[in-house]
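Budget justification, computational time. The allocation requested in the original proposal was used primarily to generate structure tokens for proteins on the priority list. As evidence of use, we reproduce two of the resulting records. The first is shown immediately below.
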Amino acid sequence: KIVIEAIGGSPVNGAQITIEDVMLELGIGASAYNLINMGHFDESSTTSTGVVSSELTSYWQSTDNGVGIGVTVGGSLKITGAVGETRKASQTVKVLPDELWLDYSTPSTLTPANFFLLSGLAYKVGNSPAGTFGLSAKITCYNISDDGTSNHIIEEYIPFNNTISDVQYVSQLITIPAGYFVNRIEVSCVSSNLVDTVYFDNISLTR
């Protein structure tokens, strides 16, 4: 048998430790690590006064109305849509450290990331046929042939089926063209022109 333990000492002055995305796989090596933090929206950090949500909102940001992060038991992202509005919550993942991203004089130190896999679950409450909801990725890249002064933006959108009021899973491979190096990826859960409420969960981005 294999026993995995998370061990910590007594907290001092309310100090706490957050442990996330522990993985155990059978194989020669791990298949892929989720680059998204708190993609399950399950806030497990606790203090003497109960559950806190500061960790979630430090990773996922939104200034839109109708967006609730980690609002359900077990964790999920809730977006209550509105006609004529696009509402979303986003997280930006740094893929290439800034010190390498800015070092254009030594491109050999850059490691190309050619493929990413974006996936997640969503559940729509309601039967309105209008509007859309899905996952989006905004990828900021650098082209090795440039002089280092221009960013290149690649945008991908993965829609869920708006006619289904049930749990859905989507997954899509994102291909980065040869010669491009990724600095950061902004992943968003999006509701656009949708009057229904959507719950997002288990958001994953692997390389």
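The second record produced under the same allocation is shown here.
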Amino acid sequence: QALLSAGASASSLYQSGINIQSIIANTPANQQASTIQSLSSAGVTDSQLLQNGANPQTIASAQVMSDSNVSNLISGGYSTGEILQMGATPQQMLNAGTSVSDLISNGVSANSLLTAGVTGGQLLQEGMGLAQLVQAGASAGTLLDAGARPIDLMNNGVSASSLLSAGVTANELMLDGMSMSNLQAAGVSVSDMVRSGSNIGDLMNHGAS
């Protein structure tokens, strides 16, 4: 501690042979972040820092988590929750082989997972709620591909026009319980319905005018 107080850098102490645990243990709380930065610059990995008593939150605040550090931490047996707490992004975790279900169980949001490239359909299949996915901006097409019913999507705020754009026909919506008047009240014209693939005869049978 005297050497650190006198201005010796953590990296120089490490390179002189002083062990990491001793350096961290003798660093005052208000200097922990700078010590971690200094040790990292000397080649000490996040995994080594953790094994020698560094606080995960301090590691996260002291540096940007690299892809190689994420892989090393996973290989070192650290849990998904611990690595996320250290500052790893969902994208980095996915790239390193962490499953979508593991990230969900550790509290990663639908928004974050969608941003990381996971589709709404994948999240629906993993058990995430339809309302949550629609609110997060998951595309109607991927949700439909994963088995969501058009009527359930509409009940959770997806517009009829979005469903038509995703390939659902007006006839399918009406078979699913939506009336022609409700479709037209939602701003969907007969020409929109025909363009989306609806049969004009079916539309006439449902009261299109």
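A brief technical remark on that second record: The mean pLDDT is 83.
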